[in-house]
## 1
Amino acid sequence: MNCYLPSTRSDSAEVHRQATALVGRLSQVHADFSKWWVVPDGPKDPYIPLDDADAASASIRRSDRRFFKEFPGAESDGSIGVLLTNSGSDKQWRERGNVFLSVKPSLGRICLEISRVSEMYASPGDVVWSLLRALSSDPRVTFANTNIVQMVAEEIMLYSYDRSVYRHREFLGWMGFVHDGLTPAQLPEAVRTEWHGAGTLILATELLDLSSSAAVEQVNRVEMKLAERGLLPLTDARLGE
């Protein structure tokens, strides 16, 4: 799941502040998301609790220094962000579905990845919908989408690459958020729409199975309607509107 917002240059303390506010909203979705740690840089490094502000900020600064040392040509007037997980050990990380939360203010991007969501939760759609609502509660968010990675006929497929409609626009995928108020009558192709802040949460299909032509076609129809309304951002203007 990706959320897009205006990029901002932030130091380590501001990155920590934004990450803390974000996980505070996620913690209301499910007990699994109540506590977060900075992902270790190496196998011998500890998991640092995000709520330890001094240690977490210091870890962010160390990661920044390593990055800018490796890429000296990169812009260095801010932090590159932080990578978090909802687990305090390798064992717990595997048990909770290999969760990552990337918070990158300088890129204007928040990304939440759950590798085994269908195994972890009895109602994965409800959990992901609630996570989407929490992430897009930030009033700066302008767009959000949810990708699916699935093994189909012994081949790993990605909705955004293998099944989406456009190559020059963002995709919506399983569910997402657009910065415009839409009613069900304006987007009848979607299973569910919900006004949320200054925009709309959209559930394109109950279950996005990449092996199901019917499910994929339904998501495609939602994306085409959003594109007609100018609500799927361009990723390559050279390919036209």
Note: The two ends are 25 Å apart (CA to CA).
## 2
Amino acid sequence: MNSQHMFTSKTLAMALLVAMASTGTAMAQRTQGAPATSKMQAEAAAKVASDSAEAARQSAQAARDATATAAPGYAPSASQYASDAQDAANRAVNAAHDAHGAQDVADSGANPASGAAEAREAAATATGASLQAQQAADATTQAATPPAPAMPATPAVPAVGASAQQQVNVTSSPPDSTLSARVDFDSLDADRDGNLSRTEVGTNTTLSSNFARIDADHNGRISRKELAGGM
């Protein structure tokens, strides 16, 4: 449809030309005394009508092309718009014929001003029909093209609360088994009974301050297994 957009400014320019040339019935009557001016106006209007008709024909062709390449299931709707574009193009062509007929009247008739007025009216009709053909062609392209699929929404990532973060930190801490590697059990086990009493660990600040937690069975003694964090 890019080619159709090229005709937008051209067609609007045609409409402006018709509006500037057409100053109403009163002016057409005043130009009866200036047949040369009327003939020039009729010729300009006929040219505008011809250009509008050509633009309308190209819009109709673009609509037919869009229908031919329509996605499956979209052709019926596109065809209706293409039919509207063709109807508008036919009106533009007929109006162009009327404009040229009016130009002939202005050139050879007894009342050139009347022919010029009829040519301007026909040119305005052709311009309007050309714009309608262009709009219908644009609608055909839209109807023939399926809409783009919607992008899936990105799932939200749940926020990690402070308590959850704290729990992760606690569970990821190294076990107390590392404590046994830092304590000389044999040197502290003064009575060689295989256990450490509160008295025996009194010189070890870490063991004495955490005695109750390490003494898993709460028998008042820390075994090698308890020191390794196994109980």
Note: The longest helix spans residues 35-68.
